[in-house]
Amino acid sequence: MKILSINTGSSSLKFSLFNMDTDEVLVSGLFERIGIDGSCYTIKNSEFKIKEDAELKDHADAIKILLDKLIELKIISSYDEIDGVGHRIVQGADHYDKSVIITDEVLEDIIKLSDLAPLHNPAHAIGIKAFKSILPNTPMVAVFDTAFHQTMSKDKFLYAVPYEWYEKHGVRRYGAHGTSHNYISQTISKELGRDDLKVISCHLGQGASVTAIDSGKCVNTSMGFTPLAGLVMGTRSGDIDVSLVPYVMEKEGLSAGEVVTALNKKSGFLGISGVSSDSRDIEAGIKEGNERCKIAEEMFVNSVVKYIAEYYVELGGCDVIVFTAGIGENSAATREAIAEKLAVLGVKIDKKANDVRGELKCISAKDSKIKLYLVPTNEELMIAKDTLALIK
Ligand code: AMP
Question: CATH for 2-144, among 3.30.420.40, 3.40.47.10, 3.10.400.10, 2.40.110.10?
Answer without folding.
Answer: 3.30.420.40
